[in-house]
TrEMBL record:
GO terms for biological process: amino acid catabolic process; peptide metabolic process. SUPFAM superfamilies: Enolase C-terminal domain-like, Enolase N-terminal domain-like. Keywords: Isomerase, Magnesium, Metal-binding. Pfam families: MR_MLE_C, MR_MLE_N. Belongs to the mandelate racemase/muconate lactonizing enzyme family. This is Muconate cycloisomerase. It comes from Maledivibacter halophilus. InterPro entries: Enolase-like_C_sf, Enolase-like_N, Enolase_C-like, Mandel_Rmase/mucon_lact_enz_CS, Mandelate_racemase_C, Mandelate_racemase_N_dom. One of its GO terms (molecular function) is magnesium ion binding. Its cofactor is Mg(2+). Residues 145-241 form the Mandelate racemase/muconate lactonizing enzyme C-terminal domain.
């Protein structure tokens, strides 16, 4: 069964409605486009992958993913063994530069195939299970202060232990927001801020130096993705650990973060960096360098979220609370039939073969 030859690749674009507007410093949206890939092998084993990038965040969309896979990646994949993941990544990179979200969908589907072919969960193929339970964090998107406080309280009551708050508005709005949430939830709840590139490096230091009085777990992507020197400047002038997200969109991006010591933490998003194969390589690079990681969300629903769960379950270095399950609760609908097992703010990694999910096949009809 390990000669699982790729016979066909299908891609479906699905626009899913969000329960309410999702807003960050880069964009606002009421729906989200999801690209779902289905890879079929000569043995009839089927693997699924998913990505849901926003154009402002990653430069890709569900529609561009379909175009790239249909025109460039599918022809390069037909006839290859699904187990030859490094070779497949090389062929994909030769077929087209970048487009890491598109490549992520393929890579995720490969692990679903391999796991099903061998009868083992995906985490077994990623180094085995390091942790069974994965601690979750909840992300409070941009909205008015009252709404932010109410959402924070609701999620803590549901069992979440860590809050991530979207900032990058204006200095005073951000100050009032964090102050209001901290006063509402108490001094013991870890609060992580995410500016999504909202500030230049000098303003970031001024803003967050004030906000540090409220006690912060970390500050994510305070400056533009390309401004590695600016991120390093912020890191050197604040007490709070700095996290890179948009600045690490591929395996090679993490090298500069490590070389410049520009961040303390990296948010590794499986659907952003090229899939599980690349996410594991980034996690290994962090471990070698003494940095740590977390796994975030691009608002993927069930398929992409399952991949992230297996990644964190198998990765020692990814040891901070993760907002990898953000997409499902924010959408009106999901693409899988089974539900993730969540207990006291932690999600349990499935032991079923592959990604351990049951995809709603009707989406391909």
């Amino acid at each position: 069964m390990n000669k699982s030859i790729i016979k066909d690749v299908e891609v479906k674009v699905i626009e899913l409605p969000l329960k309410k507007q999702w807003k960050i410093a880069l964009y606002a949206a009421k729906t989200r486009g999801h690209a779902v890939v289905k890879i079929i092998t000569n043995h009839g084993v089927i693997g699924y992958g998913e990505a849901s990038p926003s154009p402002a965040f990653m430069g890709e969309t569900a529609d561009t993913i379909k175009l790239v896979i249909d025109k460039y990646l599918k022809p390069a994949l037909i006839g290859l063994n699904a187990f030859d993941v490094d070779l497949i990544h090389e062929r994909m990179n030769l077929a087209i530069y970048g487009n890491y979200a598109a490549k992520s969908t393929i890579d995720i589907a490969l692990y679903d195939i391999m796991g099903k072919a061998l009868g083992v969960p995906a985490y077994k193929l990623l180094g085995g299970k390091y942790r069974s339970e994965i601690e979750l964090s909840w992300v409070v998107g941009m909205q008015d202060l009252e709404g932010s406080i109410q959402e924070a309280k609701e999620k803590l009551a549901q069992g979440y232990k860590t809050l991530k708050v979207k900032v990058g508005n204006t200095p005073q709005i951000d100050y009032n927001l964090v102050k209001g949430i901290r006063e509402a939830v108490g001094k013991d709840v870890p609060i992580r801020l995410d500016a999504n590139q909202g500030y230049d490096y000098k303003t970031a230091v001024e803003v967050f130096r004030r906000i540090e009085e409220f006690g912060l777990e970390s500050i994510e992507q305070p400056v533009r993705r390309w401004d590695i020197e600016g991120m390093k400047y912020v890191k050197e002038h604040l007490k709070t650990p700095i996290m890179a997200d948009e600045s690490v969109s591929s395996l090679h991006d993490v090298y500069r973060i490590i070389k410049e010591r520009a961040a303390d933490i990296v948010n590794i998003k499986v659907g952003k960096v090229g899939g599980l194969t690349i996410a594991k390589k980034i996690a290994d690079a962090l471990e070698i360098s003494g940095l740590t990681g977390t796994a975030g969300s691009n608002l993927e629903v069930g398929i992409g979220s399952a991949a992230s769960i297996h990644f964190v379950a198998s990765s020692k270095t990814v040891n901070m609370p993760n907002d990898l399950l953000l997409g499902g609760p924010l959408h009106e609908y999901d693409l899988i039939k089974n539900q993730f097992e969540i207990n006291d703010g932690k999600v349990i990694c499935s032991d079923k073969p592959g990604l351990g999910i049951e995809v709603d096949e009707s989406i391909f009809k």
